[in-house]
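HUMAN:
Could you generate one sequence with tokenized structure?
ASSISTANT:
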Amino acid sequence: MKKITLLFIAILFIYSCERKESSLIEPTTDDDINYFIWHGLNIYYLWQDDVPDLADNRFANFDELYTYFRIYRSPENVFESLLNRPEDRFSVIVDDYIALENSFQGINLSNGMEFGLVQYKNGSTNVYGYVRYVVPNSDAVAKDVKRGMLFNQINGNQLTTTNYINLLFGSSTNYTIGLADFNDGNPSTNGTSISLTKSEIQENPIAISKVIADGDQKIGYLMYNQFARNYDSQLNAAFANFKAENIDNLIVDLRYNPGGSVSSATYLGSMITGQFNGLLYSQEVWNDKVRRSNPADRFINNFTNQIRNTDANGNVILQESINSLGLNKVYFIVTNGSASASELVINSLSSHIDVALIGKTTRGKQVGSITLYDSENFQRTGPNLNTAHRYAMQPLVFEISNKDNKNYPQGLIPASTDFPGVELGENYGDLGVLGERSDPLLDRTLIYISTGAKSFSSKSSFYNFDEIYDSKLATPASDYMFVDVKKQP
């Protein structure tokens, strides 16, 4: 896949020794971090032209820059001051790039319980969690946590809209969940508790890959929970099995997939199809500086028949032929937990084949990012990497659309003009088993495939609960969609 190469354009400041020699102030580590933040955003940030403090001529010299940013209490505050809020909802800075890199590969500090958080039906500030699934080989598995369990207390405290972040995602690696009964959307504690401990675990994003027999049809079902490049080969193997089984239809379950690699998203679209090799899949719009410094083909992503992944230095680490199905229609299960690269696949394919959505409106994240490190070329392996800290930035740097220049910042809506299907939320009182017909969303998708029926009985109609957060958003990778940047040859 293509990578953006920054052809370093002339800017006001220069790096390394000359930077120090041109300053009367002896820079501290915080000064270095602040300059890194300003420098990276000045070059790459999507809205660089719209932020006065990111103008090329904003600072006359390094001393002026250092002095200006010393008024802020932390690098996080400096970073936040340079963003185009509220239009930019997703740019972030992290203080440990190793944790971020691991998270992009599915490695996180976790107890293995993946969950969503929902506000009580009665309109109070109370919140409850529902277990979406459990990661294999985790503490949650050992403690017999199951999909569909509900909890409303942490360490004996009722979860609310104001305390759930501290209780569930604070610095402690241990907590005790208090289980609850659904009680028509206002869960009540049932007296059972489970203590869980977080450790570093790796999750395979290909959670389920199977063939479902439905009448005389073979229907492939794939539950895919993160666009992680290190699992591209395993994803391709899943499609090899679908191809060998000669499936008639395909369901791709992205309900819990917050995004990831654009290249993996392009590979998935190419696996689903195959008849569009070399044609335009998606296109990116970066800021003027980056566009002027790169050839036009750097900003387009085409369907491909090859997986070709490289490292930061351009060395090939994976190359294999794509197993494609040649489908003209595909079905996606989606929720508000489906974001960025998940939305990219759906949107890109909709310009070429029929796409149906079953579930709820997706998050609406049509912008992507890159990881910037404090080195001369912003690469982890770049010259003069500052080893005095581990800060890295994940700023939004491009907007992405399908071949028709269309995207959906308000989210993709099931059963709409653009995306036929069925609008149906999760039944938190009875989630069923993933990959089985007891799962209401999968069952409804199978019915839709076989009958085309959009309506459903009152028994299957669920209250539209307000889901406010989920465990994946709390990981360093969160819901970021990203591309790779390589150093100039």
